[in-house]
Design brief:
Elements: E1 3-12, E2 15-25, E3 30-34, H1 41-48, E4 56-61, E5 64-65, H2 71-74, E6 79-82, H3 94-100, H4 113-122, H5 124-128, H6 139-152, E7 157-161, H7 169-184, E8 188-193, H8 196-202, E9 205-210, E10 213-218, H9 220-225, H10 227-233
The chain binds adenosine-5'-diphosphate and magnesium ion.
The site of adenosine-5'-diphosphate has 11 residues, from β2 and α1.
Length: about 240
């Protein structure tokens, strides 16, 4: 088991956001987490990467307990989060942003050429624009850069928080195509998405989160046929 979240509960001050959440990601999987706005999807990803610490439950990554560790200890273990706001450094070039992705493993003198080749193969657009400042990229290109920077950290598990948000339909399908390509390179993915239908099309397994609780778990096929999912998330 790559990631195992066991009975995690999280509170922001007096407000509880996650209630006894359990979920798993096995090696090679693309697991998608669906849920309405405010359900707690981002809270789960941020808790996994150590930005918040649960008041109950455990999180295991690659056989190690991580729920009490800070982010800078967790990322080098092979876990990366591409946040919803993308978090690119606007005043740095594309190349410099990609370099930032390597700080978790890179030591003096180490080459990053092979890592760059890998992300440029996934995102040829970034190669063309590597000397451009990040603020000047389009929304779709910034999403590519954020994802590419995540890959530069050499994650075993890449967590993507709503990668298709705010993108034009053509770019949305490209995001999902890229997700499948990343999976093929051997990286597992935990994907949070509003676009339930497309997420279920690339996923190996899925969870539905409702007001901080896991309400459903199943194969994409099961969830695509589930009446509740159809009504609430597929706009059937
Ligand atoms: N840093 C925070 N401080 C206080 N409340 C927060 C914080 N982040 C999220 N919340 C609250 O936790 C709940 C879940 O939020 P979030 O995880 O962002 O949901 P989602 O990603 O599914 O939209 C919401 O009620 C939100 O207002
Ligand atoms: Mg969110």
């Amino acid at each position: 088991m790559l990631l195992s979240v066991n009975g995690v509960s999280l509170a922001y001050g007096a407000a509880q956001a996650l209630f006894d959440v359990s979920l798993k990601v096995e090696e090679g999987e693309v697991v998608t987490l669906l849920g309405a706005n405010g359900a707690g999807k981002s809270s789960i990803l941020k808790t996994v990467v150590g930005m918040y610490h649960p008041f109950a439950g455990t999180i295991e990554f690659n056989g190690q307990r991580i729920e009490a560790l800070p982010t800078d200890r967790i990322v080098p273990m092979g876990l990366a989060l591409v946040p919803e706001d993308r978090g690119v450094f606007p005043g740095l070039t594309v190349f410099e942003n990609l370099q930032m992705g390597t700080v978790s493993w890179r030591r003096r003198g180490m080459k990053i050429d092979a890592d760059l080749d890998k992300v440029f193969a996934l995102f040829p657009r970034l190669k063309e624009r590597q000397n451009q400042l990040a603020w000047s990229l389009s929304g779709g290109e910034q999403q590519m850069l954020a994802t590419a920077r995540g890959i530069m950290s050499r994650p075993k598990l890449l967590m993507l928080d709503e990668p298709s948000i705010g993108l034009a339909p053509l770019l949305v399908s490209q995001v999902f195509k890229t997700i499948s390509e990343i999976q093929k390179t051997g990286t597992s993915i935990l994907l949070v998405e509003q676009n339930a239908r497309m997420a279920l099309n690339v996923a190996t397994r899925a969870y539905v989160l409702e007001t901080g609780k896991i309400a459903l778990e199943g194969s994409p096929k099961e969830l695509l046929q589930n009446e509740k999912v159809k009504n609430a998330y597929l706009g059937a």
